[in-house]
Specification:
With 420 residues, the protein is α+β, with helices and mostly antiparallel strands. It has twelve helices and 18 strands. It has two domains: 295 residues, Aminopeptidase, CATH 3.40.630; 113 residues, 2-Layer Sandwich (Alpha-Beta Plaits). The chain is 34% helix and 24% strand. The strands form four sheets. Strands 3, 4, 5, 6, 7, 8, 16, 17 and 18 form a nine-stranded mixed sheet that branches. Strands 9, 11, 12, 14 and 15 form a five-stranded antiparallel sheet that branches. One manganese (II) ion binds next to loops.
Length: 420
């Protein structure tokens, strides 16, 4: 377990703090680094500088994923890479740990390998995947999805953002249109260390979660079209008000989720036009995020949404248009890796429970092409996607130590404990 004795936890905390400042504004809570925007570029530039400081070989692929590889003995350079990753893009008004913790922990592990003088028996690398959050470009987990062969590069480059720009053009603008073909780097195994972003670990007082399953996700954009009319003169029976339909559907969805086993439904964006105090809106557009650990239950929830829309829209004389944005079935991670995580935690005397991931992660995509697993650390009060997102340094360091020694175990290396 000695590789973790070469970790520099203080540097991890310092780099997390430095990264958390990028994308902050005095008037806006938290930080915002939407994919391929100017703040994302600054964070990318900072990460690349940190990768070079550990003397890693840096690659950028054609969708902007950033890799830092610790090269092995040249005779092993052809072997599939042991990859540690996550993301550094954020949601709007984000916390400081989501994604960044996993990327910087990966850098810390490679730095420990260097400090211990280890020449690994295979390439070991970190990756920061592009557009994990999917706020500006959908679907989410896009960089990892492309590496897993889930979307052709040409289609990714032609995606248009919520603010009307083309993915490929933004990639060129920020200088991260790389040459490497996504998926050309064979992956031996993938590990992702991440904050739980939910309430389970905090509520149970357990230090770590060994993530064995990740729930299914369904994203869609729903546009309801009615008729603009005068707020004062239009009697109710002559109204075709899409906002009333949206309200009825959203309220009914909360009731549906409450009666379900595990379905959750979220409307995170809603726009209406013309958006005037005395005008019945003619158009309402909102996004719907449905999740469930059971794929059939998720499919049932999707069908129920269509039924709610049909019922309420026809009653109001409103038309409906739905655009699918993402649909990923639940994923089961590699049982051997999950067991190794639990076993390494136990050897460190760190409490660890098996856990299902409520959040989406890059690991769910890489699991399509390589054995993958995740380690969770607690989120205080279960808060995330919120500037109040927080994980105690002791928990961050526990996750880092376990990640590090899972890597050592995966590499089959033993390192003498650092003496001092
Ligand atoms: O949406 C998610 O679950 C992740 O934060 N991208
Ligand atoms: Mn994340
Ligand atoms: Mn997130």
């Amino acid at each position: 377990m000695a590789l973790s004795s070469y970790l520099d936890a203080a540097l991890l905390h310092a780099q997390l703090a430095a990264l958390s400042v990028i994308g902050t504004k005095p008037t806006v809570p938290g930080r915002t680094r939407l994919a391929l925007g100017d703040a994302d570029r600054l964070a990318r530039d900072q990460l690349v500088a940190w990768l070079r400081a550990v003397d890693l070989t840096v690659h950028i692929d054609a969708v902007g994923n950033i890799y830092g590889i610790l090269e092995p003995d040249p005779r092993c350079a052809h072997l599939p890479v042991l990859l540690i990753g996550s993301h550094i893009d954020t949601v709007i008004e984000a916390g400081a740990y989501d994604g960044c913790y996993g990327v910087l922990a990966g850098v810390a592990v490679l730095r420990a390998l260097r400090a211990a003088g280890v020449t690994p028996p295979r390439p070991v690398g970190i990756v920061a995947f592009s557009n994990e959050e999917g706020v500006r470009f959908q679907p989410d987990m896009l960089g990892a999805l492309t590496v897993a062969g889930g979307m052709p590069v040409a289609d990714v480059l032609d995606l248009v953002s919520t603010d009307g720009v083309r993915y490929g053009d933004e990639l060129v603008r920020i200088g991260y249109a790389g040459l490497m073909v996504p998926g050309s780097l064979p992956i031996h195994a993938y590990l992702e260390l991440h904050i739980e972003q939910g309430p389970i670990l905090a509520a149970t007082g357990v230090s770590l979660g060994a993530v064995h399953t990740l729930q299914g996700i369904s994203w869609q954009r729903i546009t309801l079209s009615g008729v603009a009319n005068h707020a004062g003169t239009t009697p109710l029976h002559l109204r075709h008000d899409p906002l009333v339909v949206a309200a009825q559907v959203i309220a009914a969805l909360r009731s549906y989720a409450q009666q379900s086993t595990a379905t959750v439904a979220t409307v995170g964006t809603l726009e209406l036009a013309p958006s005037a105090i005395n005008v019945i809106p003619h158009t309402v557009t909102f996004t719907l995020d449905l999740r469930d650990p059971d794929n059939d239950a998720l499919t049932r929830a999707e069908a129920h949404v269509q039924q709610l829309l049909a019922t309420h829209a026809s009653a109001e004389g409103v038309t409906v248009h739905c655009t699918p944005l993402a649909r990923f079935a639940p994923v089961v991670f590699d049982a051997g890796l999950v067991d190794t995580i639990s076993d390494v935690a136990r050897s460190h005397g760190i409490s660890c429970i098996p856990i299902v991931s409520g959040a989406g992660h890059d690991a769910q995509m890489i699991a399509r092409v390589a054995p993958s697993a995740m380690i969770y650390v607690p989120s205080r009060d279960g808060i995330s996607h919120n500037p109040a997102e927080y994980t105690a340094p002791t928990d961050l360091e526990a996750g880092l130590r376990v990640l590090c020694d899972v890597v050592a175990r995966q590499l089959g290396i033993t390192v003498t404990e650092r003496s001092n």
